[in-house]
Amino acid sequence: MNTDPRTRDELLRYGPNLPEAALRVHAEAVTGALATQRDRWRKGFTRRTVLAGAGAVGCAALGTQLVTTRVAFGDPATTKRTLVVVFMRGGMDGLSVVVPAGDPNLVRARPNIVVPAAALLPAGRGFGLHPQLKPLQPLWDSGQLAAVHAVASPDASRSHFQAQDCLERGAASLSVHSGWLDRLLGALGPGTTFRAVAEGNAMPRSLVGEQDKLVLDGIQQFRLNGADSVRPATLQALSALYTGLDHPLAVQAKVTLQALDAARKLSGGAYTGTVKYPGGGFSDGLRDIARMIKAGVGLRVAALDLGGWDMHTDIGRVDNGGMTRRLKDRAEPLAAVAAGLGPQLADVTLATMSEFGRRVTENGNAGTDHGHGGVMLLMGGGLNGGTVHGAWPGLAPSALDQGDLAGANDYRDVLAEVLTVRFGVGTVGDIFPGHPYKRLGVMR
User: Fold this and answer.
1) Are 399 and 393 in contact (CB under 8 A)?
2) What are phi and psi of 181, to 5 degrees?
3) Which of 17, 32, 236, 419 is such that its CA lies 20 to 30 A from the CA of 277?
4) Domains and CATH numbers, the chain
5) Could you tell me the pTM of the whole model?
6) Does 336 score more than 80 pLDDT?
7) Alpha carbon distances (Å) from 374 to 164, 167, 210, 405, 410
8) Closest Cα partner for 253 from 10, 4, 51, 42?
9) Mean pLDDT, to the nearest integer, of 324-343?
10) Rounded to whole angstroms, how far apart are CA atoms 257 and 254?
11) Are strands 374-380 and 196-199 parallel, antiparallel or unpaired?
12) Mean confidence (pLDDT) of the chain
């Protein structure tokens, strides 16, 4: 190893015993340290001049997230696939999204807000899609989009907080503290820095746990704090410092620099393509996810939220109202990400979920209140698409659950089928503890 002995002694003194927490240094500290050495950096890089900041760079580039150097080894047919989970927060009314067309029970219960059968997009099995989902109709027709109706979790509290917590834990028991996506990452094995990403400004409950992941409010935020950009020449110079240095600190620095370089290319638009995204937080998040998939940076799991589904008032029918506006905000970005991915959509499974559905009967404010059974949409490759899956309990008064659509299908069965068929997960007992998995036929 061609290394200055004094530099090597310093590394061996501090590096091997450097606790993991010390590597999670906030970026401002690194930026300040580098600023004080500006003149020294201008004269050239040495390992000694950046030694103090090297460990910090290993994580400061990510804000407070840990860079992993591990690589996943698995079935080549599944290791390149990506699961995207979109949480529709607020309790989305599945009966206005995937509608039992002309059901007399629904017409009686919702005289002012039921979507007319004549306005629906044909979906099979007596269902129709809300007309605002028209941008997604080509995906439905080609078998790349499907729905599962009357979906529910074990929680029947009709409480946003409790229902979301149960859904994202992936378990009925409160003794389970981690999120189901975190446990999925453990089952999938190690990967790259970008293997798990939450788009937004907070970690979703489903990703809470021991596994490494990133929270990104836009890929452009993946950088050294206080620095507008990192020039390629700078990355090359820093990389040269650690070439040939056989030490964990050098590996940490190298992986971080590679991640910074990848993020710079992603934010520069090299993988955006010509597809126009409609804009807004949800759309921007989907665009970032598409960039990471197209760039092949090892994205396995992505999560993002879309709120605004708690429609107690003015849910509307077709041409106006909260549902029409929100579905437009949802359908256009989803169609854009599908077009942007092109053939690579075959390696992606996108699943939407919401904490519960809404009551069958409309309320006095032309809206709907908290219910139970809801709907999930699935988009991507490997689907038995173009249809509505799952047992349908119907809307007859005797079939309702305290006035709500019954939860005839467990959301964990939908997700477990995706994980076993598409991602090669051998058993889902650790991911959804206490739940006996039953296949619904959603995946081919």
Assistant:
1) yes
2) -70, -35
3) 419
4) 5-65+223-260 (no CATH), 76-221+273-422 (3.40.720)
5) 0.80
6) yes
7) 13, 13, 30, 8, 10
8) 51
9) 96
10) 5
11) unpaired
12) 82
